[in-house]
Give the backbone structure.
Amino acid sequence: MESTIEEWQHRIAAARATQQPLRLRGAGSKDFYGEPPSDGHAALDTRAWRGIVDYQPSELFITARCGTPLAEIESALAEHGQMLAFEPPYFGSDATLGGCIATGLSGPRRMRAGAARDFMLGARLLDGHARVRTFGGQVMKNVAGFDVSRLLAGSLGTLGILLEVSLKTLPRPVQELSLRLEMDEAGAMVACNRWVAQALPISASCWHAGTLHLRLSGAPTAIRSAQLSIGGETMDGDAFWRDLREQRHGFFGGAGDVWRLALPALTPPSQLPATGLVEWLGAQRWMRDIDDADALRSRVVSLGGHATLFRSGRRSATPRFQALSPQLLALHRRLKTAFDPDGVFNPGRMYSAF
């Protein structure tokens, strides 16, 4: 296996010498996310570097290589009644751990458990100088100073090849129950945040087209008590939440752009230009086919959030990610220079500036 790293080191050296960037790619299940990859960059397939390196169920962590199929990792965890609590989306049956962390995407349980970056304990990275660098470790409280491993989550491969990742795992809930209630969007957001303030065990929420769906997770007594407080009809939730996570829900079907908005949870829907699908108690909102991207982004910024062009079936002049402030752009440039000064890895996948 070490020969794979040596091969990659030679490819990095050649890319630096010829100024020909590398396009890092696993299964390609999330190629749609971020700026479209350049066809002119040489592909570096990471799937050869795979396998679970260490898994300690009693210590609640797992370490695996970047090319390891996400399904393999979750299967190993399930054998011990554990899970990746940020509920990462696959967007393809052969999705890899590297793609999961590089995109930093999280599923419905993120509202309760936290984001992908919150579960990063450590990482090994092959940087733009072809050096193997290690950050963090395999247990909590292993970092003094800036936590670089968390920085890698969502970096879209622009800082280096993510060789290994150590992630915190959590036990699966003892029981789960899903509910369905009919209510309008504004009422649903207020009700959801009231229930969470009452410490009810809500682990996922979704509002769309006049219907609120909730998932309760925890001890049977806590779930029964929450069900009495919330009301509604019970439903078969497993397929619903899985389809929502993988964007097989009807809202996401068909052609056209899909926008993701990050907003303060209680932002009134009347402040937004359209009605869509709402997750995470209102903190994540999805919209379709927005005519004026600049107006949408300006409005969302004024409300304290940001807007991402999450999916688009066409090449567009509209940037996928919202523009950075001058201060943040300068910070991103410094990070890129520190890890990949010659621009070897995935240039332009996040922002055209690096």
About this structure: The longest helix spans residues 2-18. The first strand starts at residue 22 and ends at 25.
